[in-house]
Design a protein that fits this description.
The chain is of the alpha/beta class and about 220 residues long. Helix content is about 50%, strand content about 15%. α1 links the parallel β1 and β2. α7 packs across α9, α7 crosses α10 and α8 crosses α9. The protein is globular.
Length: about 220
């Protein structure tokens, strides 16, 4: 069962989201919040698998709220606005996904399940802007923590940069999906990242600098 907390300051929107999620098999809405501060409080109390987070809310906005809880629960940002400041702000804060409120019910439920499974998801029309922004940005130097990754973790890290799911990474690297999840968790911890999406962006940045491949001085690439 996937436990979900719904945070939105508009009662009608919140009720609609609860109705959609409550009708989905294997999904349970465990709490509702009408502002960002309450969302943080309930997330800490209820420890849901996913928080469905609006951006514009009173007391504490959704991006600030995401920053406070992304370390212990996955956040799927759902907003009417696809402004760059919201998209990049949410991802920098550690959101695992970003969708727009015009998403249909089936896609919303699928996104919740995807995020709960440890994957990342971004609205298609937002993805193009992320790619354009990445292409226009200068390639950064490698973060020091990258040296702490094992050869196998570097392979997984590179796969994250390609946008592969855990299942796809497992198939490519010939290992169990549970092992893949463990490697992803270790990568996030070592690089000080809050979400898989952040890891994918970091992997793309370091790949642009030619720095994300296995380190030949740290053992064979097949080491796990």
């Amino acid at each position: 069962m996937i436990d979900v907390l719904v945070a939105d300051d508009q009662a009608a929107v919140r009720a609609g989201l609860v109705l959609i999620l409550g009708a989905a098999a294997g999904v349970r809405v465990v709490g509702e919040a009408a502002d960002g501060r309450r969302a943080v409080e309930l997330a800490r109390e209820l420890r849901p698998h996913v928080v469905l987070m609006d951006v514009r809310m009173p007391r504490l906005d959704g991006i600030a709220a995401t920053r406070e809880i992304a370390g212990f629960t996955d956040v799927l940002v759902l907003t009417t606005f696809d402004m760059d400041e919201y998209v990049f702000g949410a991802l920098r804060a550690g959101a695992s996904g970003f969708l727009l409120k015009d998403v249909d019910a089936d896609r919303l439920v699928e996104a919740v399940r995807t995020v709960a499974a440890g994957e990342g998801i971004i609205a298609p029309r937002v993805t193009r802007r992320l790619i354009e922004a990445f292409s226009a940005a200068p390639a950064p130097s490698a973060p020091p923590a990258l040296d702490e990754l094992t050869p196998r973790e570097r392979e997984v890290f590179a796969c994250l940069g390609e946008g592969l799911s855990n299942g796809q990474i497992a198939a490519r690297l010939d290992m169990a999906e549970t092992t893949t999840k463990t490697h992803v968790s270790r990568i996030l911890q070592k690089l000080g990242l809050a979400s898989r999406v952040q890891a994918a962006i970091r992997a793309q940045e370091t790949a642009a600098s030619g720095l994300s491949g296995p380190d030949p001085h740290k053992g064979s690439p097949g080491t796990s």
